Request: fold
Amino acid sequence: MPPPVDRRTVLRRGAGLAVLGAAAPTLLAACGDDDSDTGSAPAGGGGLGDISVRLSYTPGVAFAGTYIAVSDKLYEQAGFGEVTLIPGGPSATPSPTDVGTGKAFLGVASTPDQVAAARLNNGAKVKIVGALYQKNSYAVTSLADAPITTPADLVGRRIGVQAVNTTVWEAFLTSAGIDPGDVNVVPVQFDPTPLTTGEVDGWFSYATNEPIALALKGFEVETMLLADHGYPLVAQVYLARDDTISDERDRLRAALKAEIAGWVTQVTNPARGVDLTLNTYARDAGLDPELVTKVAEVQNTLILTSDTKESGLLTISDELIETNLATLAAGGSKIEAADLFDLSLLDEIYRESPELISDLPAVPAS
Reply:
């Protein structure tokens, strides 16, 4: 029998997204520390000034493309001076808040419901300007000898669900047409050992998290992505303020282009971002290189799809926007597309730089 799962092997979690992360300093700067507010365009080494980018969680391979954009001087080539990466985490203010208040010029939020809630409930004047993950990584993990591969397989089964994920779980069941009363929910924490010992039949997880950790421990597992069964939210969404989109388009377009170029490199050569994660941005976290490598591979299947291969990274198809809006509405966040999304900058970027599409590799097998 495979060894038990070490709690430290299980990846830390953000709100709605698990990333391979670590405890992080309050601020990471590409060119040293700077206590000034870099949300707007202060004087800096480049014509576009310094820039701050708010990440959705603590340092990890989920931000590999951003690390490449900084380390390979793509931001500098675009005209920026110092790039400050502001990590998120369990105790951090929400990314839409940091962007909305000007603490960060550009931000990444785990999922669009965070942005919708900030706009609808808190008056945050922010919009989504791109989505890295075309599928969120929410999943149900089961053992291969008793697999759960469709929502119908959940009926009558014991599923471990963490308290923080209850809202998503219930919304998924509704979208999938499963009566919550037909599924035995077992309150759990984050260590998936109960799945390996038979205490539960399935585990609410993330495709970039528990399935990988369990497989590396020798367990044969099945992973059912919620995005494939009625819960199609995009994830790792980029956001900016409304007035930034309207009044600082050149600066925002340059930042997004640097990010896209970094991610084109990462999906083409995942080892590049793995190296930066392990040896630079999360070097003191004691991360397992094999685990980080596998997460980067799985992550690519969420980023590079037939749609983004054709239209470019960060783009969101009209159909996917509509399904996201419907999913948000089912969860109580009814919002119009024009109030949540503005993808016009991506159109400009790819019109000017079509090589960012043609340089993409083949779509990986999921």
